[in-house]
# Entry
Amino acid sequence: MRTGTSIVVLISCLPLFAFAQKQPAYPQAYFRNPLDIPIFLAGNFGECRPGHFHSGVDIKTLGKENQPVHAAADGYVSRIKMEKGGFGHALYITHPNGYTTLYAHLNKFSPALQQYMEREQYAARHWDVDLPLSPAQFPVKKGQLIAWSGNTGGSTAPHLHFEIRNTQTEHPLNPQLFGLPILDKRPPVVAEVALYKGSVYDGEPVYLPLVKNDGIYKLARTDQQKFSVNSDTMQVAATVTGIGINVDDYMDGSDNTIAFYTADLYMDDSLQAQVVLDNIGYDETRYINAYADYKTRQQKHAWVQCLFQQSGNHLDNIYRYLNPNKGRIDLTDMRTHKVAISLTDDKGNVSKVQFFLKPIKIPANTPQSDCIPFYANKPNTFSNPNITFDLDQRQLYEDMCFTYKSIPQSKGYSDKYILHTPDVPLHHYFDLMIKPNKPVWVDVRSKMVLMYSDGKDEDGRAVTTTDNGWYKAKVRNFGTYWLDIDTIPPVITSVQKNGANLSKAKQILFEVNDATTSVRKFSGYLDGKWICFEQHTNKFFYNFDAHYPKGKHKLQFKAEDENGNTQTFDLTFTR
# Structure
């Protein structure tokens, strides 16, 4: 048993790199707080989110919308983008020092910008626009009002999403490294570590809960730790072990969880690997599903972040190694080794973890039967008479043993095909092709859908046909698939009553739901003229503008799903 005193001495002697050397030389006084209120974060750069790393900071807006938003520095508005999800209403400002700032989830833009954007929407007869702008159109000065904050796009509560990007590469950078006025004296809080003896997806990690003692996180005694030698040592049946960590950070004045900045992994005081959360491109962000243990996230709803790199994880920018195992630690000498982890946030607050690993004899592997070996960094193909797909060399993050099963069903137009398990991630979309097992009459061929289930929910997507009788759709998950038809149009529900007086209202709102696929197209016409309806989740609304005169009106709203099933709602009202 090691004493608490010896642990403190050992940790204090770790050969940590100087914190200042880890941070890039970003300008420290160039960008101002884009709001008029102090910065409190609801989220920060590098946070684990479903399918992506968080790419900026989420600044709280006192739980309200319509806080004034200001240009963080001199530059020009280079882009306006409107979309139903993602950033919602967003502005981009390009600055002369090589950086671009993004302001997202906005409500409205400053008057000149708002008028320009609305003219472009009506000219294109589309509300979701992506408008590039020249330097001469909308120059701005530092502190100039550019918009008001909101809750649009993929936002779930009022806040401002703010990013700083490298203009040339378009990679988001960590805004907290630019000297923004953020108060934070709280170190990261560590819940548990996970040990990976082999494959992340074909095996089961060993979870080790931690408790803070004498300022250091150590192993907590639990009934699940059946192989513990003593309170600080864990036996592991492996010669090479990956370490994952379940950790959250916090800032002063906020209870929202945020991400750490760096993680250093040591074995016997020797640095093995380092993770630095900065400079993650949008073309790389889906590698979150390899950086964080996807299977654990699906099953336990916990973000265990891997301090080792799977062979098919090409997020090379955030990992640094001083061992040949891509961050996994080597236990082949069968000796007990000290493992230490140092976690630092962007303000230099540090949390430390220490425990010991004792390797034991590795039991013989039991070969898995009835499966097909798939390999990371290589193309993989599966095919039988009624279902086929190809995975390119970037789809898998590590080697796996693929399983398949078909289940006959009386309903639908094919068997149900169980493709492995949805707990194993795939990197991007691929074509899945299924051949129906019953005749598909001409009148329903355009209504065919590929249905999907992850064991919890079901949804469908439109398919295309091939000359030889296959139906295909783009998918990016393992799980259960089958063919069916969709002839049911979307359901439109009006919030307004027919014939109502809307003189005091600010918008017209419909809710639209489709039982099988999603709404592909929608449009609204006021007295026969197109008006700008906008979508947010299943809500479709028209904010009254200059195209809405006083008097009696007839409005027609139309929604169409992915299979061309349409529904129209007619509304009469008075302003």
Notes: The chain has five helices and 47 strands.
